[in-house]
């Protein structure tokens, strides 16, 4: 159980590490202001990462390298967060997902030597395949020195899970790792998948792999937590997915269970936010009052949680992916991406502003508000937004998982998009896991293939326009 004093201390640290994305006002078009944003990236002579003038990167923790515990760095680096090391401002701990399928043992931590799996004790891993081999998904943790730029140590911190895609940090200093899966027991594995697992940033080895079943079983993507209430918000990576809220029985201790709900709109005629169908267009900047629907049988043996929720009136979202809590003074909001939303199917950025009475009976009189913050008109503007994070300079940083060149982009409060980084490698793999160091000086981001983590430094103040 997480003690209340640790919850409050970590919530303060989270507010520093993930500061305001101040975009409460209505969005405008990209031409709505004369203030310029950066547009030019300098080609990288090494062919890894193009960045603005004056910025630099460090590339480390590559797929297949041997970590300090002897395990291999798994492939498909994905969602990630950076955590402060208490009493040591020079260092931070990165907890990082690996989106490895159950069948892809050659991409997991035991790829170099399958016998290494015997070092993982029973209870420290979640599942194995029909042949008795541990699954290769999970998380790794990295101790990084912000002063020297040195990766000082790395280790396996969650084992035996599948397709750990995104997730989110908690205010009490742990990482919630999400399985983007609905694989059922008997389909090549011994147990059901599609759950959330908690990994404390303080862990220095594999943690007990215990699914937080009350948070639901579905194609989990990302998580964000309101530090003032402890309420957990979740996205679902499905073309007909839902947006979820979890009301914990004990804030700060999710293993104690709670209620899972799905977002619906007070205007019952609108049950689809994807803006695909004619006549159901939601305008950019429009605020929509919401209500929440209780869900039953949340472990969904038939994998039909979203289908049942929508039948009860829950709104559909187009592949919900990255999510971030954006603090604004004494309040805040949830920003989340829908990868294929909008008429061009290039992506949407949504913003949920909780009710002052969120999670209580009083919210009916002052409901939370859902706002379509940005909708991409074409691939060249923003192509399939994925992981997102609030930036220290008040913008949103967005990882693309697109169909052409892959970018990390910034989104200003008034709706302008600008490039921060471009994947210059011929593999042209997606970006993932963008997060800032606790002091806000370093942007960490992953590239899935060839798998690597990047630490980007530069004059970030130039982007605050």
Helix and strand topology:
Layout: H1 4-17, E1 49-50, E2 56-60, E3 77-85, E4 88-98, E5 137-145, E6 150-161, E7 164-169, E8 174-179, E9 196-200, E10 220-225, E11 232-236, E12 243-248, E13 258-265, E14 287-294, H2 305-311, E15 320-328, E16 331-338, E17 348-353, E18 369-375, E19 385-390, E20 396-400, E21 407-411, E22 417-423, E23 431-436, E24 443-447, E25 452-457
Task: Describe the fold and architecture.
By secondary structure, the chain is mainly beta. The protein has one domain: Neuraminidase. Helix content is 5%, strand content 36%. It contains 2 helices and 25 strands. A 9-stranded antiparallel sheet has the order 10-11-12-13-14-18-17-16-15, with no helix packed on it. Strands 1-22-21-20-19 form a 5-stranded antiparallel sheet, with no helix packed on it. Strand 20 and strand 21 form a beta hairpin. The longest helix has 14 residues. It is globular and about 55 Å long. The N terminus is likely disordered.
Poorly predicted runs? 1-34
The spatial strand order of the largest sheet comes to 10-11-12-13-14-18-17-16-15
Would you list the SSEs in sequence order as H and E? HEEEEEEEEEEEEEEHEEEEEEEEEEE
**Terminal Cα span:** 43 Å
- The structural domain count equals 1
CATH class bucket: Mainly Beta
């Amino acid at each position: 159980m997480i003690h209340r004093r640790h919850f409050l201390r970590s919530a303060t640290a989270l507010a520093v590490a993930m500061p305001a994305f101040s975009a409460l006002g209505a969005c405008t078009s990209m031409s709505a202001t004369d203030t310029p944003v950066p547009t030019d990236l300098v080609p990288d002579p090494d062919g890894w990462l193009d960045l603005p003038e004056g910025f630099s990167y460090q590339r480390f923790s590559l797929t297949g390298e041997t970590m300090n515990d002897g395990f291999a760095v798994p492939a498909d680096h994905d969602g990630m967060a950076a955590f402060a090391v208490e009493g040591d401002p020079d260092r931070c701990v990165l907890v990082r997902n690996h989106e490895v399928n159950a069948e892809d043992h050659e991409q997991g931590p035991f790829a170099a030597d399958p016998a290494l799996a015997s070092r993982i004790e029973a209870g420290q891993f979640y599942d194995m395949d029909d042949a008795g081999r541990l699954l290769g998904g999970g998380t790794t943790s990295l101790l990084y020195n912000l002063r020297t730029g040195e990766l000082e140590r790395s280790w396996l911190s969650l084992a035996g899970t599948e397709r750990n895609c995104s997730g989110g940090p908690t205010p009490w200093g742990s990482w919630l790792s999400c399985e983007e899966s609905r694989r059922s027991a008997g389909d090549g594995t011994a147990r059901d998948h599609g759950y959330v697992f908690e990994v404390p940033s303080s862990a220095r080895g594999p943690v007990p792999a215990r699914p937080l079943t009350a948070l639901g079983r579905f194609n989990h993507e990302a998580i964000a937590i309101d530090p003032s209430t402890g309420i957990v918000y979740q996205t679902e990576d499905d073309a007909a997915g839902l947006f979820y809220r979890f009301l914990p029985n004990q804030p700060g201790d999710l293993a104690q269970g709670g209620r899972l709900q799905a977002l619906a709109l007070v205007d019952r005629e609108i049950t689809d936010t994807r803006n695909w169908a004619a006549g159901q267009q939601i305008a950019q900047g429009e605020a929509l009052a919401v209500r929440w629907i209780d869900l039953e049988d949340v472990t969904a043996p038939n994998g039909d949680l979203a289908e049942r929720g929508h039948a009860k009136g829950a709104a559909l979202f187009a592949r919900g992916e990255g999510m971030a809590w954006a603090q604004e003074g004494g309040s805040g909001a949830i920003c989340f991406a829908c990868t294929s939303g909008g008429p061009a199917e290039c992506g949407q950025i949504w913003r949920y502003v909780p009710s002052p009475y969120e999670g209580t009976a009083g919210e009916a009189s002052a409901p939370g508000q859902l706002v379509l913050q940005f909708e991409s008109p074409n691939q060249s503007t923003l192509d399939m937004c994925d992981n997102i994070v609030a930036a220290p300079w008040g913008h949103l940083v967005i990882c693309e998982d697109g169909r052409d060149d892959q970018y990390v982009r910034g989104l200003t409060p008034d709706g302008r998009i600008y490039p921060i980084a471009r994947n210059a490698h011929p593999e042209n793999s997606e970006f993932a896991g963008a997060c800032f160091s606790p002091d806000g000086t370093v942007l960490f981001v992953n590239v899935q293939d060839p798998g690597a983590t990047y630490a980007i430094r530069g004059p970030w103040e130039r982007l605050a326009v």
